[in-house]
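Agenda item 2: heme C complex prediction
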Amino acid sequence: MKNKVKIITMVAGLTIAVSSVLFMNGCAVPESIANKTGAQLWAENCNRCHNAPDPHNFSDEQWDAALEHMHQKAILTDTEAKKILAFMKSAD
Ligand code: HEC
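Presented output:
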């Protein structure tokens, strides 16, 4: 009887430990995205619905507006949107 209680306590403790690790990691940027460049993210995301627009086609101000718009449409993370925007603006 005592052993059963011990096992239940251990399982409960483990569950709490695992879920708090998962919870904390939920806010971190996944490694795969963190390592991708703006150019890679642009190529992978911006051609899903239309041809990926040429970075030369718009001014920096126009990219600000377009990315604000596409950030929501393409369901990009903040990190992805920032990297893509920097890539778009780096082309003259
Ligand atoms: C989920 C589909 C989808 C994805 C993914 C997407 N777009 Fe778009 N995009 C659209 C649609 C639909 C339009 C035209 C209608 C509109 O503007 O809402 C558009 C229009 C645009 C325009 C025209 C100007 C404007 O703001 O309307 C630009 C520039 C653009 N997209 C850039 C991008 C870039 C850069 C990416 C990658 C970060 C991207 N799009 C990813 C759906 C998408």
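Discussion summary: The mean pLDDT is 83.
Owner for follow-up: CH.
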